[in-house]
Amino acid sequence: MKIAICPGSFDPITFGHLDIIKRASKLFDKVIVLVIVNPEKHCSFSPEERAEMISKVITDIPNAVVDIYDGLLIDYFKAHNATVIVKGLRAMTDFEYEFQMALVNRQLCPNADTLFLTTSAEYMYLSSSVVRQVAKFNGDISQFVPKQILNTIIERLYKKDTEE
Ligand code: PNS
Hints:
This protein is α/β, with parallel strands linked by helices and 164 residues long. The protein has helices spanning 15-27, 47-57, 73-79, 92-108, 128-136, 150-163, and strands at 3-8, 30-36, 64-69, 84-89, 113-118.
């Protein structure tokens, strides 16, 4: 079975992520959407909340599952007999960092290839931080994230800001 891992912070998941996950699901037998816990990064949502949002928006992708991992991606990759790591690339600005990560992962495990899918043009500008910024001011994020998670995001980010 060919297993792809789509790792990320997903704080929160966006239509851009979903596009990559859907495309990966057509290329591989199984896609694991992996919420990585990064202690160096302050996230607005807990890993469990991020995973729950993901599970709500991947219901129509039968071969996709979500998981949470606190550790090195490559250790998860090996433990789950994964075939490939799939990442989305939006622009050259993503490239240097992603290139470095792919090389480090391959250094740690020589058969761990990273497959880069170019973003669909309509999502080139989209990122989780864009969603957080717009949601913070109660802006319309319906074009950025699926409707199933709209309220969770707005309630958390808008309320939090006005309460401060
Ligand atoms: O969505 P992001 O924040 O760009 O995702 C980055 C992520 C979580 C995929 C990356 O930071 C990662 O793989 N972290 C796990 C730690 C790890 O394995 N690092 C590689 C060696 S430096």
